[in-house]
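Hi R.,

Here's the chain you asked about this morning:
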Amino acid sequence: MFDRWGGDENSQENPLIISMENDKDISAVFRESAESISQPNTPSGPANGKVNQLLVYTSGNSTSNLGHEIEYRFDWGDGNLSEWGPTTQNYKYAVVDTYLVKAQARCKAHNGITSNWSGGTAVQISGHNLIVSVDPDGSGIIKKNPDKLEYNHNEPVELIAMNNEGYLFDHWGGAISGHQSTNSIIMNDDKNVLAVFTLSPVDLDTSEISLLDSISVNKGENFELPLYITSLDSISIAQFVFEYDNTIIKFVSSRLGSNSDNLLISTVNLNLPFNPTSQFMNENLLIQIYGDITNYVHGVLQHVLTLTFQAVGNYGDSCKIIIDQNLEHTNLTSINAKMLPIFFKSDCKVTIKNISHIFTEDSDNQKISQFMLYQNYPNPFNPDTQITFNLPTPEIVNLTIYDMVGRKVRSLIFNQSMSAGGKTVRWDGMDVNLNPVSAGVYILAMKAGDFKKTIKMLYLK
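And here is the predicted structure, written out as tokens:
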């Protein structure tokens, strides 16, 4: 910009009028103007987004009065500024909130020359969703800590599975896994979590052992019996003797339950002398469990052991597996170790069958007034489960099993004309080729006339 005149004239007047009475030497003196940067546009970009979502914003239109090159930065509204750079930049928010995005420009050659901040663009950031559910419905709840509608990115959440009366927590599914009722998850995305509960075999008010009530198996087939235990006292060693007819069933193996890795087991065939008062042949099996049983089963029914037997008898044979109720169990919580009695629910009756599923009918059909498909029992199950349904009128019935991707696994009843009444059918966990199915969830679909219903069944290995 013009500063003053020099030489034969010394003035800041501009324009300057001079009188030429002789030769003149005049110079005009200029000085560099102070640089200024114009305010950039209000950033344009999305007004809504989610945590950890890449959001893109654009500003621009700033100029230097000296024509110098311009660069930009963004204030994201959460205490963070972008690096200086181009007119378009992106950002990921981590916390749920509403923010104001602004832009500023500066001279690229003279970094200290900056513009005023632009106007702001508001952006509403929502969080990750955590959807929790239980299976079966009504079996329990999942407590979330913190309990919020949406979560910040990478926010930790504690999950606690709480069973309703008559059910026990079994395992987690969906975005997490495991068998402990308390678990945690990091919210780095939307998550779905499932808590799976199982029916409690018995109502407990003391120490108790229980087996399944009854089971039907094919000749030559291996079958498994889960053993459940709970105690309101402190037990560190538990031992059980099982008595059965070894001409009908044969012991194969034993293994710990799915959530009892801290326990140890030993299995011994006692070869006790034949008891002439017993209805069984000479087969007595001693199972001993060692470890921190107290913390594992205290007041809660837990699956600690699975016994595997093989059906070696003939079709129609049946026998009971009886637990010796006179055996006592070692309690080491006092200075003087004492023996503690265990109370039992029932023995298990084993029947050998000649087909893969058994169909029975309820003789009292007058009480049935509506169609009904009940939840299978037991559920989860291994090796087989019982399915019960009601027909108020004679119908053509289809009972079909599918896997979770919709593939047909087995038809238990196919286009069969059935009379009114209560019906029961057993599924042995085999597919159409009589091969054992994989562990997992299966869909049972019933169609009887216009009546249609499905249930989920959980098969465990």
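One quick note: Helices lie at 293-297.

Cheers,
M.
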